[in-house]
Amino acid sequence: MKKLGILLSGRGSNFEAIARNVQAGKIPAEIAIVMSNKAGALGLARAKEMGLATRFIPSQGKEREAFDREVVAVLREFQVDLVCLAGFMRILSPYFIREFPRRVLNIHPALLPSFPGEEAQRQALEYGVKFTGCTVHLVDEGVDTGPIVCQAVVPVLDDDTPETLAVRILNEEHRIYSDGICLLLEDGVRIEGRRVLPKL
What we know:
- This protein has helices at about 15-25, 40-50, 65-75, 95-100, 120-125, 160-185; strands spanning about 1-10, 30-35, 55, 80-85, 105-110, 130-140, 150-155, 190, 195-200.
- It is of the alpha/beta class.
- The strands form two sheets. The protein has a seven-stranded mixed sheet, with helices on both faces. A two-stranded antiparallel ribbon has the order 8-9.
- Helix 1 packs across helix 6 (about 160-185).
């Protein structure tokens, strides 16, 4: 069975959604390891409650690649096939990307390439878009610039705040992240340039 490695820095709601779908048999994999760079991350506590293997590796004061080498060593130890970022607030080094080529997934709360980086919901509201959403993408050496695996659209309401918009986007994140994971695990896609297409 394929093995997932989950990296998170906070509450880990996307991790929990993935874990529920793994338990329900909707994702053909097991979660081998859940890791965080924050000792107090709620997601790490939830993973422990679920009986999953966890690891805390502090990132503060370390060079990016030095930290990434520690993380990669643990992912290798647990023989991880696919790495899923679930609110992992770090930019991965080129070393990390090379170690897991096209095998690192992330989810972003906007329709990339619009509104990359932090506070995507606030960016969308300030820009005045009528629709935003979320994007599952492969991670490359940029920030939210990797090939897009799948997306979901969320209407922006006239009375939305960043918080209310974030809640509705998060509901879609929980749904499509698992879809994206399944596509990668089942080898259901081919990548041509920037385009992620169904396997012929």
